[in-house]
Amino acid sequence: MRRRTRFIIILLLVLTAAVIVYALFFMGRALETTDVSLPSPDQQSGASVSAAPGAEEAVVTRSNVQAVLAELEREENFTCTITVEDFWPGGSGSSVLQVWAGSGRLRVRGEIGGAVRNLVVEDGELSIWYDNVNGVHTMPYEGRADRWLRLLTYESILALPSEAIDDAGYELYNGYECIFCEYTDPVGGHVNRVYVTAVSGLLAGAETYDGDGELIYRAGISDLELSVPDESLFTVPES
Predict the structure, then answer these.
(1) pTM of the predicted model as reported, rounded to 2 decimal places
(2) Where are the chain's structural domains?
(3) Among 111, 177, 206, 212, which residue is least crowded by beta carbons within 10 Å?
(4) From the first residue on, what is the mean pLDDT of each consecutive set of 10 residues in the chain (239 residues)?
(5) Does domain 67-234 correspond to CATH entry 2.50.20.10?
């Protein structure tokens, strides 16, 4: 009887040990998922690829770049300079815009046709005026601010079919470590390359190529500061 009891106890101990070993070495593996860990705003080094504890290190690829971009949030408060270049056969042109964004408001200042134009987008209204010219033109406006920044709206990538994406990854662009995505516009057939800073979610730069592979558009930001601009910058002059 004692021998039988001892045998049962030993059998139970063996079974318990087997369950523990299975839980440690097999169940945990089934729960592991590949994760892309984006840097927080206080990381000065830019975008780095790291993994959450217990997860494998991941990279941005054609198959997951839409999911990575969907996780980004644009910084709402910033100051920067945007340089836009247009290229055509036998020539080119460029424009420089000063941009201030804060608390849902946008101020853009730049030279247009030899005159300095200012605009403020705030509370569903667009106000436009020129330096050294009296008068302010105000109208309702519900569109995206990217139109006035002359930047591509990279969020449109999320709606693309996966086969439209040609390449993706992490790249250093214009001094910023960025999430890179190259895709073919389903409508015009142009190839767009966008570079989004992983820290701020802002577009660091973009390029567009025509059907022959010729560069026709390029934009890039510089002097980026992630802070709330002075309140006076959003003051619209009296008409």
Answers:
(1) 0.75
(2) 2-59, 67-234
(3) 212
(4) 45 42 38 44 41 51 95 94 96 96 94 93 94 93 84 91 95 92 93 95 96 95 95 90
(5) yes
